[in-house]
Amino acid sequence: xxxxxxxxxxxxxxxxxxxxxxxxxxxxxxxxxxxxxxxxxxxxxxxxxxxxxxxxxxxxxxxxxxxxxxxxxxxxxxxxxxxxxxxxxxxxxxxxxxxxxxxxxxxxxxxxxxxxxxxxxxxxxxxxxxxxxxxxxxxxxxxxxxxxxxxxxxxxxxxxxxxxxxxxxxxxxxxxxxxxxxxxxxxxxxxxxxxxxxxxxxxxxxxxxxxxxxxxxxxxxxxxxxxxxxxxxxxxxxxxxxxxxxxxxxxxxxxxxxxxxxxxxxxxxxxxxxx
Length: 275
Prior knowledge:
Immunoglobulin-like, alpha+beta, about 35% strand, four-stranded antiparallel beta sheet, about 20% helix
C-alpha cells in the first residue's frame, strides 16, 4: 500500500468530514473492494477509538475544564508515562494491523511503543512504531485538537525533537542506539505561540506572539534572521521551526534574542515560534 493511500485512510478513519467528497468516495471504494485497505481502516478506527477511551480517563475535571475555558492552554507541558489500568479502568491492548496482502512490500504492522499523559490538562501522546518502514508515529490527542497544531515535541531521553502537523501528528526516526523505553520516558510539549509566512528575499516581516512580544523576521543574503524587539519585557522565544511548502521541517534555537538560519532563495514556508 502506498504511503499516500494509507495516510488518506487514516484521516478518513479519524474524521471523514475532514476529507473532500471526492476523497471520501475514493477511500470508500478502496475499503469496500480491497482487503488491505479494509484492514487499514479497521486498524485506524480501533486505534482512534481506543485513544479516545484512554484520553477519557485523563480528561481534566469539571473545575479544571472551567479554568481552561477562561485561560489559554499552557505553553509548555511535560508528559509522563501513563498506564491504562492505573486509574482502575480496564482498557484493551493496543490494536495491531497486519495486512493480508500477498507481497511483503505492501504489508504494514504497527505496534504501540508508549502512551504519555498530562492528566491535569487532559492531553495524551501516543507513539507507534511502523514495523515495515522502520519509523515511528506520534499523535497528540487533546481537546480542542487544533490547540496543539504545529506543536514542538521533545523526547529528551532519546535526544529527539519534532514538529507536528496541523492535526498534532508526525513521523520520525531515531538512532539505532535509542531504546524503545527512551521514547516513552518523558515528553516535553511546546505549543506554538505565533507564526509568520517566510518573507521574500530582501524583505522584512513583523510578527506578534501570543504573549505580546514582537519579532522582526528579515531575509537577505541567503539567511533568515529572527530578532526579538528590545522594547518588550515578555519572555523571548527559545525555539523556532520552519515548515516548508513541501513539508520539510527544521528546528533552530534562539541565542540572546536572536536566531539565524541559512536558506536557499527558493525556500518558502511558515515559521512557528515556541517559548
